[in-house]
Structure prediction request, 129 residues.
Amino acid sequence: MKFFSQEEIFLLFFIIGIIIGLIFDFFKVLRKSFKTKDIITFIEDLLFLLISGILIIFGIIKLNGGEIRFYLFLGIFLGVLIYSLTISNLYVIILYEFVRICKKIFYFFAKIFLKLLQLLRKIKSNGDT
Prediction:
């Protein structure tokens, strides 16, 4: 098994912090893009915590042989912080626009589908008489 130096481990956990920031913003964009009930928000929060926890635990076990060190959490904290102060806003804007465009495409095709259903019902009701 390859062992990493403390500097490499710190960098890997810094990257895990950035990934956690990306996931957080992903859920933030979903929350702003879709009006959901409180239970859905609660489930999203649990999912975020679960994913983050798995990333951290997996990192500790696979990258650091199960040893918990202060610098691991410092790396995560700094990764989230640097991400939040630098590219978070750009990522949120891009992701929000992507979701907005996907919603428009979905609604466009949903309208076509509903119009086709109405047309088929009309044809069927005219054929029954």
Q: What stands out?
A: The CA atoms of residues 14 and 42 lie 27 Å apart. The chain has a mean pLDDT of 93.
